[in-house]
Design brief:
Length: about 100
């Protein structure tokens, strides 16, 4: 049977995989290369896991269903996936 995580479990997951400028700044300040790499990887995982709010996730999915499908048809799978990933990482860079 499928069960949804509790709000606390969801918050821990979002925190673990989300990008925060503070963590990256801290790793850079300590010259922690592994920590910096982990935070950069979080910029990728945060594209997919960044909220546990049902409305937020639902609106994201609706937007992707309406616009993402049409854009993927126009660009093709690989170009769309590249654009999606690049936009997510660029968003984190701007946020930083």
């Amino acid at each position: 049977a499928l069960s949804l995580p509790s709000q606390e479990q969801a918050a821990v997951t979002v925190e673990r995989f989300s990008f925060t400028p503070e963590r990256l700044s801290s790793a850079l300040a300590r010259s922690d290369h592994l920590g910096t790499a982990v935070e950069i990887l979080r910029s990728v995982s945060s594209i997919f896991v960044h909220s546990y709010d049902v409305w937020h996730v639902g609106l994201n999915m609706a937007f992707l269903a309406v616009f993402g499908i049409a854009l993927e048809r126009r660009l093709g799978q690989w170009k769309y996936a590249t654009l999606y990933g690049a936009a997510g990482v660029l968003t984190c860079a701007v946020y930083f």
